[in-house]
Amino acid sequence: MDGRSTVEKVEVDLSELHGLTYTCIDGCALCCLCQPELLPDELERFRRDTRLSQGVSETHISPEVEGAAIKLRGSFGACHFLQGRRCTIYGDRPHFCRLFPVNVFVGWRIQLNANLSCRGIGLPGEDLEAAGREVLRWHGDNALSAEVSEASDVFRQFVENTRETKVAQSYQSVRRAADILMEDLTDRIGLSRVLAYAEHGRTRQNSPPEEIARQARAAHPDADVEQRAILDGTDLFDLEELAHLPVYAGKDLSWSIFKLVGGEIIGHRLEEDGRITETSRTQPTDADLIPLDPSGRRAMADYLRLVNSRDCFMGHAAHLLDDEGYSFNFGQVYMGAIATNALDLWWRASFLARLAGREVLGADEVREGVIFFDMDLLDLPTIGAFI
Questions:
Q1: What pLDDT, in 10s, does the model give residues 294-303?
Q2: Rounded CA gap, 127 and 122, in Å?
Q3: Hey, where are the domains in the chain?
Q4: For residue 211, is pLDDT > 60?
Q5: Rounded to 10 degrees, what is the CA torsion of 75, 80, 84, 88?
Q6: Buried b (16+ CB within 10 A) or exposed e, 66-76
Q7: Strands 126-127 and 21-22
Q8: Which of 34, 76, 245, 263 is the most exposed place for a label (fewest CB within 10 A)?
Q9: Cβ atoms of residues 103 and 36 within 8 Å
Q10: pLDDT tens digits, one per residue of 166-199
């Protein structure tokens, strides 16, 4: 069984959910820090109900998201309806709350992803693939087919643009090239070469994946991954709005946010009402990459293979190329995107490990990095859409 099916001749890929189980951990409520949009019929229902209407905001914290949403407590805390880490409107919760931890991405097909920032994934419990199939039934065949028809036009136009500008690579070829380079992406020198290739390569249109990988491995490793990791990592925390900072749900289910203030990374414990308490101070230069042991390299490579299989990530690379005006070969842009995200994951795992007093990244430390990272990766700008 490969987790694939069709909806009225539209391909549906559930392979990421295959074999996964899930349990909602009491007291976690990480998903309640995500501000869900309200669909038109939900907005109408919420406005009709006095109790529900009190939690409606006419704007979302993300300017690019249009329409009404659920309020956050204290502007950047948890959902308005969360009390004592329990949902007080569980039976009336919006569509996007009901989906978690499943994401439905629509591109040239429908693909379901698991949000690996959720600590409940992998615990004995609900069959996540069965839950995904139930999600598809909620949407209905006709609605899904209409969504794919619209989104596939965007991907089709992207492919036409790459051909016209002579920077085209097939989706299969860039994924295959990334697969070949997986071990390189978990090595400092290999990662430096892939990043350098992305910036300075000279790849011809429709190059075979082996040629893309060969050019990446032949690139001069002039990208300083340590410096770039620190710069990119501190930029991650250099955001004015606290609601835009990434959240780490710790093993003790505490919520942590980190903000760059006056040249220091200050860690805070976040409460559901939006209150914050300082917990740590770190100099950015102290937050360098920690070596990966063999189990850590395997765990990181396994996660990157998953990222490589996600259509939303393919859409993200397409978005980057479009934003660059099609001035690079798509193979270079895709390799740059996956290398950049590998570096981000490595840095986040290292940052958390430093706070915990660890000096080596094993599988457990990489897993914590994934928990800190995956929700943000699924939120990267992309062509196509989550529904």
A1: 999 999 999 9
A2: 10
A3: 4-146, 153-226+287-386
A4: yes
A5: -170
A6: eebbbbbbbeb
A7: antiparallel
A8: 263
A9: no
A10: 999 999 999 999 999 999 999 999 999 999 999 9
